[in-house]
Amino acid sequence: MHVQCSGETVWSAILRQRQLLRQLVRHNVLERYRGALLGLLWSLLTPLAMLAVYSFVFGFVLKVEWKESPPGVGSFALTLFAGLIAYNFFSEVVNQSTTVIIRNPNYVKKVLFPLEILPVAKLGEGLYHTAASFLILLVGELVLLHRIPMTALCLPVVLLPLILFTAGMAWFLAALGVFVRDAPYVVGIATNVLFFATPILYPASSLPPSFRWLVYMNPLAGSVHHCRQLLIWGEWPNVAWFCYTLIVAIVTFYLGFIFFSKTQRSFADVL
Question: For residue 64, which of 52, 77, 53 has the smallest C-alpha distance?
């Protein structure tokens, strides 16, 4: 199925297949927990366990503090957890998208099946788990800090660049994975390196001034920092940094879709 690459077509292709997309996302989520005794409860229990461990280790044992974080037990853990949620969404989606086409060769042979939906379904699955993690974060913030800042209401706005950037990378890597079978291994290593290149375990302010521009150029760093500002610190994001992150995300979104739509005609020949 060949898809034209106009901006209108990107969204119309997704909206036109929204029912199929919902079915695929639901299938992906349920498949992950198939056979588990607690089923979907694990989507809440897993981030809850992570937050509990971070709070105990960093808040009670090490008593680590983050300069920008508000005072209180578990403040560092919440700051760390917020950054991990944002980054893990990106990492999980792009790693799974790299093999999403080659693991579904039957869909490639169906002429009328919209292949561009497969990476988006992985995105939807990632959003489900990300939403569950943010819910646990907010509950933890109420318990540990006894408040949730009003700025948290704007979380969907700062997540938009992260979602668009991840979608573009998912399309690009899904297509690349068909032709380069080593891509999943390279992407796995790259996301691990990117984890340490993104200020998740450390504040950007701890870097020497001569290196900070590298952080500001990293679109993931912007999303991680903005999530922390809204959810934990009660601050509004820097408008210039947010706009830069959004522009990079939009460009990546469309370029990823264009690359996927241009190459998908050759998928059947390779598979």
Answer: 77
Residue 39 gets which letter from DSSP? G
Spatial CB neighbours of 119, under 8 Å, sequence gap ≥ 6: 93, 97, 100, 167, 170, 171, 174, 260
Is residue 57 in some structural domain? Answer: yes
Print the domain residue range for 200: 7-270
The C-alpha atoms of residue 108 and residue 207 are separated, in whole angstroms, by 47
Place of tokens 């704007």: 154
Provide the residue type at 230 as one letter. L
The total number of structural domains that make up the chain: 1
Asked whether the beta carbons of 201 and 221 are under 8 A apart, the reply is no
Residue 1 lies in a domain: no
pLDDT digits (tens, 9 = 90+) for 166-195: 999 999 999 999 999 999 999 999 999 999
54, 200, 201, 210, 211 from 206: Cα distances, Å: 21, 12, 11, 11, 10
84 found inside a domain: yes
Quick one: tokens of 113?
């099946």
Q: Would the pTM count as exceeding 0.85?
A: yes
Q: How far apart are CA 46 and CA 182, in angstroms?
A: 30
pLDDT 10s digits, 193-212:
999 899 988 888 888 888 88
State both tokens at 178. 């068909």
